[in-house]
Design a protein that fits this description.
Blueprint lengths: L1 H11 L14 E2 L6 H28 L4 H24 L8 E2 L5 H22 L10 E4 L5 E6 L4 E8 L5 E7 L1 E3 L2 E5 L12 E7 L2 E7 L15 E6 L3 H13 L4
Parallel strand pairs: 1-2
Antiparallel strand pairs: 3-4, 3-11, 4-5, 5-6, 7-8, 8-9, 9-10, 10-11
Helix pairs in contact: 2-4, 3-4
Length: about 260
């Protein structure tokens, strides 16, 4: 029961991943905000967008001579723009309980501002606190719903990885990764009848961007459509609560 409560509490605090929003057939959001509140939402979104534009311009300038890496950032940026729009419209939900908030509504603008600020923090991770081989500890975000907590010591690198799928599905895995020269790997002990070998998560770090790639089954607690594959930057240092979270997840969801 304690574990179930923890899972429910965790899921309520994470961003949901994007599902394709189809306004046809979805309940339309009925605007209840006052004109003054709508104006406040519009101004708040504009401020968030201005800050984002400045930071994004700095990122483009910093990596302007690294053509391949810059092309990857721009491609990922387009994915995020789509994610932000979908989340602002529906929070990634579908089905009979989903509702659609149209462009210009107070809810749409509030959500869009939140995700814009999240993305600004993600970009600042490339500029101000990029992780390195010897400095991986911290909280890493994908800015599209996933997060990794990493605790690196001289003896080991322990982590907890929370991933999201469509319509609120979540997954968690945790354990100890191996790391060498900008690359890491984690081998899970999840093996089922369809797998011939344990699954893996591969890690690759470049310019403060941590890429993850899943091969096989790496979690026994992942919902439908959940994959442990994204791109992260470090957005915050690791706190004691984060270390406790890693230990908890390793105990209840760990695969190594």
């Amino acid at each position: 029961m304690k574990r179930l409560f923890y899972i429910l509490l965790l899921l309520s605090g994470l961003h949901l991943n994007s599902a394709q929003a189809d306004p046809d057939g979805l309940k339309k959001f009925h605007e209840t905000a006052s004109p003054d509140e709508i104006l406040r939402c519009r101004q708040d979104l504009a401020a968030a967008q201005r800050r984002f534009d400045m930071v994004w311009a700095s990122v483009l300038k910093k990596f302007s001579k690294q053509k391949t890496f810059l092309a990857e950032l721009k491609s990922e940026h387009q994915d995020w723009l789509h994610f932000r729009t979908e989340m602002a419209h529906t929070m990634g939900e579908g089905g009979i309980y989903a509702s659609y908030s149209p462009d210009g509504s107070s809810v749409f603008m509030e959500r869009k501002a939140v995700y814009t600020r999240d993305r600004t923090r993600w970009l600042l991770g490339l500029l101000e606190q990029p992780g390195t081989d010897g400095d991986l500890s911290g909280v890493w975000w994908s800015s599209m719903g996933d997060s990794i907590r990493i605790d690196q010591t001289k003896d080991s690198i322990r982590f907890s990885y929370s991933a999201t799928g469509g319509n609120g599905h979540q997954g968690i895995t945790a354990g100890t990764m191996k790391w060498c020269s900008g690359k890491g790997s984690f081998t899970a002990n999840v093996v089922n009848s369809e797998d011939t070998a344990p699954g893996e998560i591969l890690f690759k770090l470049e310019n403060g961007l941590l890429r993850t790639k899943q091969q096989g089954n790496v979690s026994q607690s992942a919902g439908a459509g959940v994959t442990f594959e994204s791109k992260f930057t470090r957005v915050a240092p690791l706190s004691e609560k984060d270390r406790e979270r890693i230990s908890y997840d390793a105990k209840f969801f760990g695969q190594s």
